Structure formats: C-alpha cells, structure tokens
C-alpha cells in the first residue's frame, strides 16, 4: 500500500474538521423563551359565559434575553374561541389573541405555544361566570367648549365588571379623545374628534382605570381626565 504523505494527510483532517464545525453552526436552531407579557397579559380575567374577554391574551417571546420579532405563536383552547389561532410576535416580542368564552361556567384554560421554546406551552386561565342581565349602561359626556370647560362629566364613575361605558361628544364638543394612562384600558378612542361622536369600551376586569384627553389633559389626573372604578359587587 502506498503511504499518504504526512502533510497531505494533516491538510485533509483540517478541511474535514472545518466542514463539520461550519455544518453544526448553520443547523443549530434558535432558542426562544416564551412568557406572559410583563404588563396586561390577559391572564385570570372574569367574564360571563359566551362573552369576549376585555383584554387580549399577550405573550413575550425573547431570544438570548432580547425581544424576538416574527416568531409564530399558536394559541389553543377547548373552552370557547381564540382569534387568531396563530400570530407573529411584533418588534417588542409581543404576540396576542382575543378569547371568547364558551357556554359553560367555571375555570377555563388556554395555551400559547412556540415550538421548541423554553416555557412552552404557556398556560392562561379565565373564570366564566353565569350569564347575567347586562349592567346598566353608563355614559360620560365629553365637554368643551360647549358645556363649559374642557372636562369629562362625571369625572369618576363606579361600575360592575361587564359594564360598557360610552363616552359621548355632544354637538359643539371640539378636539377631544380618550387615552388610557396605561395605554391599554380603555383601548382608546383614537384621533381627536368633534361632536357628535361616541366611543365605547367594556370593562371585564376589576380595578381602577384612569384616562385623559391628549389635547387638554395628561396621565395621573392632569387637566381633562377621568377615572372608571370597576368592581364585582354593587
């Protein structure tokens, strides 16, 4: 048998080793982590059977501790309906879906899944209560300059979970909107508007919700602002 020159043999080993290393690097799958969104994840809400929860379910997807964009999150529940059933994470790593409860009462479960991710599947729960007559509707007037100073009237309202609050801009109301202090609840009326105009939001989670007009107020009760207090009992 003819001997292979030592130099040629060593060179062949180096080429094979480099090819193996490059192959491992190119095929290594990304390692994602999925967790509930740090703010307003939508977990543990309460609502009557057959109704859509007021807050979306929201997850945070990261890679190496940084928000991961464009990762597919699949959503599943056997207790109602999720829309959409698959969504992509945005630039902040957030993916979301809405949840409409089914017809039976009790604790309900839903999951968010990212294939191969740490923390997947991620569980959410909701409490479905017996169907009840809808609480009395509540209307808040959005005033100024008609009706006097720029203001919400009444400034503070107390309602039950499941109540729909409607903000009404009467004729002569100019340049107002509704913006949540936390940017989420209520979800906001959009651009500044003149009357006649209305905006409605249904509150499904107990708590104290502050809001303001971007044109005449600010967060934390500055200027044209208001409060909705949501409870579970009269």
Written description of the protein model:
There is one protein chain. With 234 residues, the chain is mainly beta. Helix content is 9%, strand content 44%. The protein is built from one helix and 18 strands. It has one helix spanning 6-27, and strands at 32-36, 45-48, 57-63, 66-67, 72-76, 80-83, 86-88, 94-101, 106-113, 122-129, 138-143, 151-153, 156-160, 164-169, 179-180, 197-202, 207-218, 222-231. Strands 1, 3, 4, 6 and 8 form a five-stranded antiparallel beta sheet that branches. A hairpin with a 2-residue loop joins strand 3 (57-63) and strand 4. The longest helix has 22 residues, at 6-27. The N and C termini lie far apart (97 Å).
Q: In a few lines, what is going on in this structure?
A:
With 234 residues, the chain is mainly beta. 9% of the residues lie in helices and 44% in strands.
